[in-house]
Amino acid sequence: MTREIPLVQTGTHGREGSAPERSLQLTQVVEWNDGQVHPHEDALAAEEPLEIRIGQNPLTVTMRTPGHDSELAAGFLLTEGLIEEAGQISALLPYVTTAGGKSNGVEVQLQDCEFDPAQIQRNFFAASSCGICGKASIDAIRKRGLRAPSGDFTVDPELLCALPEKLRSAQTVFGHTGGLHAAALFDSAANLIVLREDIGRHNAVDKVIGWAFLQGMLPLSEHLMLVSGRGGFEIVQKALAAGVPVLASVSAPSSLAVQLARELGLTLVGFLRGRRFVIYSGALRGTASTV
Prior knowledge:
The chain is α/β, with parallel strands linked by helices. The protein has 3 domains: about 1-45, no CATH class; about 50-135, Ubiquitin-like (UB roll) (Roll); about 155-280, 3-Layer(aba) Sandwich (Cytidine Deaminase, domain 2), CATH 3.40.140. Helices cover about 25% and strands about 30% of the residues. It has helices at about 70-80, 115-120, 140, 155-170, 170-175, 200-215, 235-240, 255-265, and strands at about 1-5, 25-35, 35-45, 50-55, 55-65, 90-95, 105-110, 125, 180-185, 190-200, 225, 245-250, 265-275, 275-280. A 6-stranded mixed beta sheet has the order 10-9-11-12-13-14, sandwiched between helices. A 5-stranded mixed beta sheet has the order 6-7-4-5-8, with helices on one face. Helix 7 links the parallel strand 11 (about 225) and strand 12 (about 245-250). Helix 1 crosses helix 6 (about 200-215). It is globular and about 55 Å long. The termini are far apart.
């Protein structure tokens, strides 16, 4: 049996120390520890489907952690190449999709944008662990016309090494559950701008980019992004779509992620832990003392 934890919705930056509403659930568990058995209540990261539609046309369903759903929808449309400017969105409307009355859908209303449902609707299910589900081919992503990010942005390695702890300390839901991905945006002085958590790492990235997109901040040419998991191909593609010049992860990138980062001049950093990291692409960005 599980029940939702009533929590206060976070504000604009999501850094107030409270988790988004419906992002956590409590459940009864039995813990075995060195021969001792203890029943107690444990917190789980919530996972629910979110349907995104354009007007009345269903576009996709993704498993996500509830919270910041409008940002997720806007970020998804941008990073998938369906829209290019925030002005193309006239409204983001949550709607109820379940008998329980939960808002598990976002209707995106577009303006000044050509949308052909028969051509774009792909009817795919993007699971939380999914990489590039539903795409006909990797080449289709490369042909989207993604541009190389600005070559002027640099970050000091000492500041870079401090980012994982800043990300971890700001992960409200992870602090309760230990089971959630995060993406965060920092400026060149390592100041945390925005952080979002989600059961799916690509959803967390879409939420961050969607927030910046709706704030009119794109391209993010003066910012770097850190993700808590691995740096996969889709994460690189999304960072490039937002104009991010430096993408770092605490784990390893994939071979396709490295290839795409090198093709378009994105600085890609992996294994950012403690005082060590590996630069897979863009090592010549800036001077010898910067990344």
